[in-house]
C-alpha cells in the first residue's frame, strides 16, 4: 500500500500537467486564431469554440477515467464539463462515483441532489440532501430544502393518484 501512494501521486501530477498543457495549447490556438479576424477565416463564434473545448475536455477526462476509474480530478472535471455543456443527466454517473469515493464531499452531494431534481427525479435527490443535513445539522436552509423536495414529491404523488 505504501508503494501505491507515490505512484498515485505521480499519476495525479502527470494528469494535472497533461490537463494544464492541453488547456494551454488550446488557449494558444485561440489566441493565434484571434489575430485572423477576417470573416473568411472561420465561421465559428466564441461560444462554438468554448463548446468545442468543453467537448474535447469531456472526451479527454473520459479517457483518463477508462484507465483510472477512481481519478478524482478527472471525475470532477468531467462533471464540470458535462454540466457546462447542459448534459446534466450524463453528469450523474460520474457524480455518483465521486460521492462513492468521497462520501462527505458536500459540493458533490449538493450538485448530485440538484442534478436529480433538475432531471425530474426528486426521489433520487432525497438521500443526498439527507446526507447533507446529517453533515450540517445546524443548517436550516438544507432542512428547508429537504422539506420542500419531500413536499414536491408528495404533491406529484397526489396529482398522479387524482389522474387515476
From TrEMBL:
TPR repeat residue intervals: 72-105, 106-139
Organism, scientific name: Lusitaniella coriacea LEGE 07157
Gene Ontology MF, one: peptidyl-prolyl cis-trans isomerase activity
Domain of life where this protein originates: Bacteria
InterPro entries according to UniProt: FKBP4/5/8-like, TPR-like_helical_dom_sf, TPR_rpt
Annotated PROSITE patterns: TPR (PS50005)
UniProt KW keywords: Isomerase, Rotamase, TPR repeat
Top class in the EC scheme: isomerase
Reactions catalysed: [protein]-peptidylproline (omega=180) = [protein]-peptidylproline (omega=0)
Protein name stated in the entry: peptidylprolyl isomerase
Enzyme Commission designation: 5.2.1.8
UniProt cross-references to Gene3D superfamilies, sorted A to Z: Tetratricopeptide repeat domain (1.25.40.10)
Amino acid at each position: 500500500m505504501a508503494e501505491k501512494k507515490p505512484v498515485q501521486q505521480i499519476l495525479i501530477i502527470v494528469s494535472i500537467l497533461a490537463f494544464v498543457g492541453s488547456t494551454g495549447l488550446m488557449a494558444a490556438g485561440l489566441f493565434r486564431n484571434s489575430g485572423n479576424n477576417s470573416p473568411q477565416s472561420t465561421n465559428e463564434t466564441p461560444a462554438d469554440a468554448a463548446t468545442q473545448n468543453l467537448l474535447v475536455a469531456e472526451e479527454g477526462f473520459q479517457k483518463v477515467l477508462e484507465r483510472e476509474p477512481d481519478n478524482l480530478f478527472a471525475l470532477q472535471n468531467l462533471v464540470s464539463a458535462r454540466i457546462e455543456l447542459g448534459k446534466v443527466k450524463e453528469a450523474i454517473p460520474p457524480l455518483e462515483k465521486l460521492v462513492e469515493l468521497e462520501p462527505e464531499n458536500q459540493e458533490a452531494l449538493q450538485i448530485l441532489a440538484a442534478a436529480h431534481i433538475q432531471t425530474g427525479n426528486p426521489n433520487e435527490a432525497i438521500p443526498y440532501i439527507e446526507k447533507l443535513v446529517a453533515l450540517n445539522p445546524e443548517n436550516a436552509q438544507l432542512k428547508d430544502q429537504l422539506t420542500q423536495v419531500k413536499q414536491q414529491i408528495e404533491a406529484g404523488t397526489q396529482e398522479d393518484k387524482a389522474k387515476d
